[in-house]
Amino acid sequence: MISSQKKQHSARWQHMEHLTNSLHEAYVTLLCHQSMILAMNSSSVDPLQQYETQLEVTKKSFKMVFGLPSFDKGTFQTSDEDVKDLEILYRDILNLFEDTILILVSKDLYKLQILKEMTMWMSEDSLYQQERVMVIISRVLRFASRKVREHTSIDAPCLGVLAAELSLLCSHADASVTQQASLGMYYLLCIAKHQSADSQRDNPTKQYEHGNHCFLTSDSEFRPEVLQQDKTKLAQCIGQSLSPSLLTDFMLHLLMKLSTSDQETASKAATVLKLTLKYHAQKVTRVCQMVDTIYKQLKENSSHFMKDILLEVVTLLAQMLPKGVVFQLMYYPVPADNALMLMWQAVGSEPQVAPQVLKEILLVLKDKPWEVEDTMQEGRCFILDVTNMMPLAASQALCMLLPMGSYKKTVAQFFPEILMALMFQLLYISQLRVQPQDRPIYAREGLRILLNCSGLQEVDTALKQKYCWSHICQTYYYQDGVNLIARTLCEYNFPQFPETLYYLHKILVQGPRRSEEHIIIVIFFIKILDKFFKDPLPELFLVLLRNWINDSNPEISKLSLQKITSMAPVVHKIENVRSLLTSILDAFGSKDETVVTQALLTLRRLVDKLDKVNYSSLCTGIASSYFHLMDHIATLPN
């Protein structure tokens, strides 16, 4: 027994001797590191190089200091004078490290960046995640919160990321770490609020006591104990205090934490991130970057747990910032991969944002696929180009969103806009100079889905039986296909015709459009008038027909004249019939023979039904027009 006691005593003192040597070596090394770090402050080295060098040395000091055994657990008897000396030396080492950081921050608040790095180093090894590290971080932040009062403006771009790390530590398993993290978070928010002059002016600052210290706060007090206990309050305070740029950094950092292999950390990050988005998403300045980060994480084959969290974040972003989310999702190339399809489904899960989402998609559908100069042939042409595939991506998005139950009401509301936007895209696709099998068919499929989810399945079936869908993308067939689609819709008495007619009239009177789009609108407009309105037409519609008689596009002129011809039996009921006939006479001057021929046929039909009073008043003008027409026909090419 005596021999065993002697061995234990000997081993203990050997350990003490080794520990003593380690502490002395650490203290000396730390003094050298401090000298190197502070010497850099007084040198003329480039600021970036200076910071990087100081950070590298600080990291070595950190790993050395916090790799030492702790005296906090009563490992040795406190009555031992030698042990007490070692404890004092250990505290001196900690103080020396802390003093170095304090001096750096006192010279330049930008170097609060080192605290952010310290939280990163802590996460590399669980041994570092101890109260002693957090005590230093909170003390330095406390010092900085007082230091900022001396400055009118400060440069501390790390606050967003540092706040993200502290928000996770505020719910650490070790209560002592949690306490220090919440205290550090409080000081950080004080610093952040000082950066905003508007915040200072709108919310006059005041002081209150916490323990033995006096803190700076605002009217919406965010006490450390509240930040520690209430995640909702924590998220609200962070959102209120950080500037938009810093808050975006905060959210992006938490977003990156979602992909960590530590599920507990990922869950904590998800909770804080979702709460912050819920209350302060409108302050996010880089939505596209956040969406892109989620997209890349989903492509990395994340676990089901991670996918669910990431898609929840997408849904929240879409609720608060639909424009930025939709724009970024349409930026990705087509066809959509699995990750992108999941994100579109997440966007489409919320019916309250469906109108905003569809509006953004429709804006993109107004554009053509990339238009470039054709170096091999004269003029311009449409080709598929990776630099601008957004209209195709928008058509593809509609294919995914339209069938969703959450979009049923919104699709009904936007039926005319979606219908015409997809018709225009079909036109552009028919003009693409690529092989038929390579042509993207999202617009065609989107149009079919629109019909089916709008109760128009019979229209889709009829068009399929008439081989419309298989030929609609062919250039030579496209205009016939438009006529067939418009006619079939009318044949089946589609119930959306009032909204469609109103929309068509609205865009017709808004002003000039691309000529190829204009004729599509006119075809649909006239087909609906033929089906659902009895002649004579109201002046509201008749004025458009009168203006189109002399349109620069001969196809539109003929369509207008044909429609006017159909009104011959009721010509005597038409208001301003003289003005209408005068417009027809003007068409005799057209350079297109088919227009002149149609004008002659239309005039003949109308005159045949015209009453004597109107005919007699127009007789001279008609005769004069026929006289000039003879000269005109003589000059026309054979």
Automatic annotation (TrEMBL):
All copies of domain Maestro-like HEAT-repeats, residue ranges: 129-358
Keywords: Repeat
The keyword Transport is assigned to this record: no
Superkingdom: Eukaryota
Pfam family, one: HEAT_MROH2B_C
Maestro/Maestro-like HEAT-repeats domain ranges (all copies): 544-625
Gene Ontology CC annotations of this record: cytoplasm
Coiled coil: none
InterPro entries cross-referenced by the UniProt entry: ARM-like, ARM-type_fold, HEAT_Maestro, Maestro-like_HEAT, Maestro_heat-like_prot
Record-linked SUPFAM superfamilies: ARM repeat (SSF48371)
Protein's recorded name: Maestro heat-like repeat-containing protein family member 9 isoform X6
GN (gene name): Mroh9
